Amino acid sequence: MSKASNYINNVKSELAKVIFPVKSQIRTAYISVFIVVTVIALYLAMIDGVMSFTLSSVIK
Predict the structure, then answer these.
(1) What is the pLDDT of residue 5?
(2) Which of 6, 18, 32, 39 has the fewest CB atoms inside 10 Å of its own CB, making it the most exposed?
(3) End-to-end CA distance of the chain, in Å?
(4) Using CA atoms, how far apart are residues 33 and 39, in angstroms rounded to an integer?
């Protein structure tokens, strides 16, 4: 039984060390991820459009 209680005490002490993000940090991270994903998606769409246009020009 002492192993289980020792484990629970260790878990509690480790959980006390965790720093949970506040609402503003979560919002900032969300906005950053959204901007990066949008920029990458636009870049890939542009590359896809250029490659599609080039390939259709070569085929015709």
Answers:
(1) 93
(2) 18
(3) 78
(4) 10
- DSSP secondary-structure letter at 22? P
Q: Looking at this protein, which amino acid is placed at residue 17?
A: K
What is the spatial distance between Cα 9 and Cα 7, in angstroms, rounded to a whole number?
5
Q: Dig out the tokens for 31 from the structure.
A: 């906005």
Q: Which residue has the tokens 């900032």?
A: 28
CA distance 14 to 6: 12
How confident is the model over 41-60, as pLDDT tens digits?
Answer: 999 999 999 999 999 999 98
Closest Cα to residue 10, out of 38, 57, 2?
A: 2
